[in-house]
Write the structure tokens for this entry.
Amino acid sequence: MPERKGTAKVDFLKKIEKEVQQKWDAKKVFEVNASNLEKQTSKDKYFVTFPYPYMNGRLHLGHTFSLSKCEFAVGYQRLKGKTCLFPFGLHCTGMPIKACADKLKREVELYGCPPDFPDEEEEEEEISVKTEDIIIKDKAKGKKSKAAAKAGSSKYQWDIMKSLGLSDDEIVKFSEAEHWLEYFPPLAVQDLKRMGLKVDWRRSFITTDVNPYYDSFVRWQFLTLRERSRIKFGKRYTIYSPKDGQPCMDHDRQTGEGVGPQEYTLIKLKVLEPYPSKLSGLKGKNIFLVAATLRPETMFGQTNCWVRPDMKYIGFETMHGDIFICTQRAARNMSYQGFTKDNGVVPVVKELMGEDILGVSLSAPLTSYKVIYVLPMLTIKEDKGTGVVTSVPSDSPDDFAALRDLKKKQALRVKYGIRDDMVLPFEPVPIIEIPDFGKLSAVTICDELKIQSQNDREKLAEAKEKLYLRGFYDGVMLVDGFKGQKVQDVKKTIRNKMIDTGDAYIYMEPEKQVMSRSSDECVVALCDQWLVSLIDSKQKFSPVTLLILDFFFLINLSTPRYLDYGEENWKKQTSQCLKNLETYCEETRRNFEATLDWLQEHACSRTYGLGTRLPWDEQWLIESLSDSTIYMAFYTVAHLLQGGNLHGQAESPLGIRPQQMTKEVWDYIFFKEAPFPKTQIPKEKLDQLKQEFEFWYPVDLRASGKDLIPNHLSYFLYNHVAMWPEECDKWPVAVRANGHLLLNSEKMSKSTGNFLTLSQAVDKYSADGMRLALADAGDTVEDANFVEAMADAGILRLYTWVEWVKEMVANWDSLRSGPANTFNDKVFASEMNAGIIKTDQNYEKMMFKEALKTGFFEFQPDSIMTASWPLAGPVDESLIRSSQYLMEVAHDLRLRLKSYMMPAKGKKSDKQPPEKPSHCTIYVAKNYPSWQHITLSVLRNHFENNSGKLPDNKVIAGELGSLPELKKYMKKVMPFVAMIKENLEKMGPRVLDLQLEFDEQAVLMENIVYLTNSLELEHIEVKFASEAEDKVREDCCPGKPLNVFRTEPGVLVSLLNPQPFSGHFSTKIEIRQGDNRDSILRRLMKADRGIKDLSKVKLMRFDDPVLGPRRVPVLGKEHAEKTPITEHAVFHVDLMNKKIHLTENGLRADIGDTMIYLVH
């Protein structure tokens, strides 16, 4: 964006905004209590909420875009007469604030205060030495989270804080987590108030146990959920941060938001003796290469095992004393899943390279080959699976291509010391039949795509894409015991069979790399947890899995709890809630449905961070996605408990203390049938709280980014259903999800400088300029785009509008008065009414970009906040279409005039452009020409008899071609049909009407002055096409008038202005036969742009047309020896002799070659 030349306009708007916001505050416009609404005639209410933003920094434009949906909706619903509530909380629960504070503390301990950080190169070298042998990170995996985006390119927390404009003295205070809760929430409120948010700030609060009322509310919620068996204690796999010692939920991640555990079947491939020299020291031990597969049903077709020769592997001892060989990364994951004796500890007994175990003989489960061998594959990745890959060339294109390479290339076998007998005898084994691909699907597709080797990566990727899904859904097993059964039906059975026989385990790892906010690469851990349960409690585990689970229970007692979102009845009720939910967009609904389909348990507690303690086990904190599901209910009563204090530390307006808010008290407030509790709080005060909740609930709208659908928004539905299972009238009414916000078509990023906080945006564009650009940014779930040029244009538009209003008010008395009954008045009224209706529809659908287009106008009462939505009067669609017709005719005439004025085409360079025409005749048709009339009649019959559809052109052409009346017009007929078809899609069936719904001639005659002035012509006449020559009659049709331009001859006359210093000068104009005074003055006005009002111009002739112009004018006697020309005078032109005279009241007077005009 180029720098602005000045800020006067934006400063002007900000001054107005500040004054108006002060008035809102003084009048408490947005503060509303249910108890004060009894006298209101309208009982309709509208309760809208936005997920409270996290308080580890200033709010940015991304937050602002999402919350603007709430803001615009509330403004609209207020105008519709509803009592509206938009409360706004501030989130502090979870790890981020605590992690940042602790990180600052560590930096001060390590590097001093203020810190003296080491050079970047030195630091990078140190890090690489520490991690090189332990974890190999794939920077391409996982997406950059909100936290990472906020941090920009800063590595140290101190630098991140400095980027916020904080001094060293201020930064050091942030090493205590409590200071974040004191510093950022008031700034958020300040910024949101500057935006002009319609929020009842009395109801605002911060989360965590710092606010005793909110803390009590969350404890009540969890006691209720536990009472209803929604919270369970059990084992589950979860993304886990070893460094933090607890699960790492979405909000705790630096990268990898939305990534979950991926389940594999871990296949045990037993190493047969004699062991290779590298493993000789492990003689007597059972050694297994362990391969992770997503396709256990294919293990019947194993022909070999792959390792990468140059990859590092380790051998580690399992809890049963066996040795597993895999990568360090995989072993680290396994150590948190009960595979090792000590949780999180990998007892490494051997380090080796892949080349050290090439040629090793193995015994593999299920395969028909008694012995298979370890062979080299060069494309194995370290960031996925175990680094050991079992090979099934019958059904895996990668395996078949690699095996074929080894068979064909003896040099490759020699290079890696592979004997012929390890490769050549092994052929693909038919195990699954897939329609179109046969019994050896990988062989078939590699031949089809002409894959030459394992290096044809793109073709192999295409082959897998075609094969794998088809194999799962349509594949049929060929092996004994499962013959004839579909793959999808036996996949789990085969997996469980291998687990039961001890040939396989369940193994989990993250779908992609996940980094915690403490910069730890996360694993998948099997934890005992308090969870929101998402699975059926009757799920069966295999004996071996249960053995691991039981063992893990003994060694890992320091883990959180879960909520069971997969429990059948709970999921069924939530699905019903979703069915009745307004989502405004089918994609949003599909995302909800997909989430409910896969959602299972959710860990709801952790040991590190800020938040509310689990009421029955206070060593645990309730995590941030779990304390944020029904807090909208707290909004309804917060103002009567907290006294407008964010921390809940002020005196309660009802005199209620936090410790009085027992579970029974909360039950009474929020559950309709709950009995009055045993309490010292007077009943009328609890009834007032209950009244607030009953009036405002349910939530009418929750607006949020689409990235919260798989977690927060789905939990929001689940928990409302759990808390009010028998009161579906308390379930959410609508959820509006939006896409992410781009800034000037690029991703917002601090590191690139393409970033704006809310405060910066208001400073730069004013609140209203920013709001216009936010509304224009986009309405769908696709990424929206905040365009700074649009915000600048908004400033200019608003400033110009205010100036126009001032001008109109100042000139009020000079504005037109009287009845509004002209054509333009009627069209204006109808278009305004149509605009009101369209804008109303756009607001109802929350399509704010469209509403901006159709409704950017204002009705100015004392305050817009006390105004009502304008009532739309009748809309005359026919009148609006006649206005559109007029605009199209005017546009068409301008194009034709431009074409008329172009020099004639040809090689002669001396051709002059035609003289500008003075007159025009417009021809309109009452009816279509006969050939068009017949064509339209045929099309209309088809349309009416074919459910509003027209047949193919081939059918139409055949029918029309058979009509003798159309024989000579066939070259014109089909282009006409194509035009009608195109217009039918745009304008509907009225294009098939044989006559227009309005009188063309009347519309043009009523607006003849507009057309004449628009084209700068002297005169326009309107005639019927029946009066024109044959060609015009043939081509002219209803709605498509034709015209003829012409130039009327005249005689030049000088017009003099004798007034000194008037700014008006002499000019020459043509006088034409039949001119009158007004036509001459209009011509003069075009020549002299200084004349604005014709009523102030006086036209005069000399009494002596010969000598009069020769006399020197006398100052103050401009009228002497001259006679005014009245409106009744008619001019007559003698073209042959170039003389002019006028007639007036029966008298004749010569004009000569000069006239006088005076401007008063």
Residues 736 and 1075 are 66 Å apart (CA to CA). DSSP finds 34 helices and 39 strands in the chain.
